[in-house]
Specification:
By secondary structure, the chain is mostly beta strands. It is built from no helices and five strands. Strand 2 and strand 3 form a beta hairpin.
């Protein structure tokens, strides 16, 4: 399974997976993504993972649950 998607308002080079991401179809979890990376050729995030074969028909659109936490800290240096 190949999953592609856009990154909204986040530098794609700074986003990496630390946990598996759930894949949803009609509010039911049907699989998960285990790895993702920015594709400089496709200009979007791509990922690979596992999906229940019952939901693997080509063209099926799934939702990905992904939380991005950005922390900005300002430090004074001397």
């Amino acid at each position: 399974m190949l999953v592609t998607g856009d990154v909204f308002g986040v530098n794609p080079m700074s986003v990496g997976l630390t946990v598996a991401l759930p894949l949803w179809l009609d509010h039911a979890q049907v699989g998960y993504i285990t790895s993702s990376v920015w594709s400089p050729v496709l200009k979007k995030m791509i990922g690979i993972g596992f999906i229940n074969p019952s939901f693997s028909e080509p063209g099926t659109v799934l939702d990905i649950e992904h939380t991005v936490v950005v922390v900005v800290e300002v430090f004074q240096i001397q």
